[in-house]
């Protein structure tokens, strides 16, 4: 006779919704907007473009290839 151990299902806590660790007002904190007070206007434009890309594509982090795409969309080229 084989002893079978019953496993409990793993509970996944989805913290992406409004009940998660983010702000309770529904506004998602952006990566660069909080830290770019003043400074280089070109760098601020890039930061805003990266944040907009992440919002459009529902990405928290982006790859180097995606960053290159954002930079190219701004008109920069080698």
Tell me what the structure shows.
The protein is mostly helical. The chain is 33% helix and 0% strand. The protein has 2 helices and no strands. The longest helix has 16 residues, at 41-56. The relative contact order is 0.10. The model has no long low-confidence stretch (mean pLDDT 78).
Structural class: mainly alpha
Largest sheet: none
Radius of gyration of CA atoms, rounded to a whole number: 20 Å
Mean pLDDT level: 78
**Which series of helices and strands comes N to C?**
HH
Kindly, what is the distance between the CA atoms of the first and last residues, rounded to a whole number of angstroms? 70 Å
Coarse morphology: elongated
Percentage of residues in DSSP E strands: under 5%
SS element count, helices: 2
Task: Classify the helix fraction into a percent range.
Answer: 25-40%
Q: Write down how many β-strands occur, each being a DSSP E stretch of 2 or more residues.
A: 0
List the uncertain runs: none
What is the structure about, briefly put?
By secondary structure, the protein is mostly helical. The chain contains two helices and no strands.
Keywords for this structure?
78 residues, 33% helix, mainly alpha
What's the arrangement of secondary structure elements?
Blueprint: H1 41-56, H2 64-73
């Amino acid at each position: 006779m084989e002893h079978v151990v019953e496993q409990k299902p793993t509970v996944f806590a989805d913290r992406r919704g409004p009940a998660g660790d983010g702000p309770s007002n529904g506004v998602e904190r952006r990566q660069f907007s909080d830290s770019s007070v003043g400074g280089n206007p070109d760098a601020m434009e890039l930061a805003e473009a990266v944040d907009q890309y992440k919002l459009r594509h529902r990405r928290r982090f982006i790859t180097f290839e995606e960053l290159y795409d954002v930079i190219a969309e701004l008109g920069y080229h080698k």
